[in-house]
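--- STAGE predict ---
source: upstream dedup step, 1 unique chain passed
mode: sequence only
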Amino acid sequence: MPVSRRDTVLSRYSYDPLDRQTDCTLLTLPVIQRFYCKSRLATEIQGSLQTSVFQHDDQLLAQQRQQDGKVDTTLLATDQQRSVLGARGLTGSHLLAYSPYGHRPVDNGLLSLLGFNGERPDPLTGHYHLGNGYRQFNPVLMRFNSPDSWSPFGKGGLNAYGYCEGDPRNGADPSGHFKVPVFIKTTNHTAQNHHKAPKPISDSTKIAIYKTANTLGNEQNIMTLARETDKSPELFLFEKTIEGREAKTKKLITFKSSNSRENRENREKTIQHLKKTIRIYGEILIGTREGEFRPENLKDTLLRSKKILRRLEHLNDVVRATS
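--- STAGE serialize ---
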């Protein structure tokens, strides 16, 4: 006789218009609702239990649980990749440990809402929904459960299921698309540890530094190149990023006063490049101080770029007025 098979749905997930996972419905438990601050999970509500995460920029600080009028606050200790390694609450201090790919034994306990690389493990499977629900990473199999939409020809790389290019120790994959080296994740913290910056380095500047890191190879190669120049990896990446921007500026720059379509487009392209370059230089300048982490002559380079930008914008105004 044929055997009838009925699949049981153990969990359902809902998403908002920004493709962030907002609800997790388990078979026998109350619905889990998730709320975000920008791209980070901030609060999770399940029935009468509310858990909130406190953080400053990328640094996890503490979590607070509220249930039936009782409040329990837990301080969190993390590494530079945001993995929660310790929790201290009313019951004392507890240490957490993971495998290189983020697996945590069941007897290790769930003392913190967030775990490996500061991500929320699924309450049913223990897998991590990277990219706020984009796709699940399985820390036991050390791979994703579904292929990357950016693979194999985009930033996702040739292996559509691979995690961090096989090197989770030196990077993380918060988006679920591609590896972000530790150097890039800690660039803003390194700067702020040596100077009180009025504002953190923006994502566009971090992306520019990340692209520079990609052209230089893996982390080990960057560290080797930095040692050869007797510089810290952070300073080395800053300088290489600036060198790349300067080279592109020299390639693009044109002061031809003709109002032909080609010259007009070239000037506009150069102006946009310079505006972005000035913003990157300014953020590095603000976020660092003289010495180990600030490239030499950065102020002069920034002033020179501003001068070129003013000349190009003035030329554009003159050409428009006379045409």
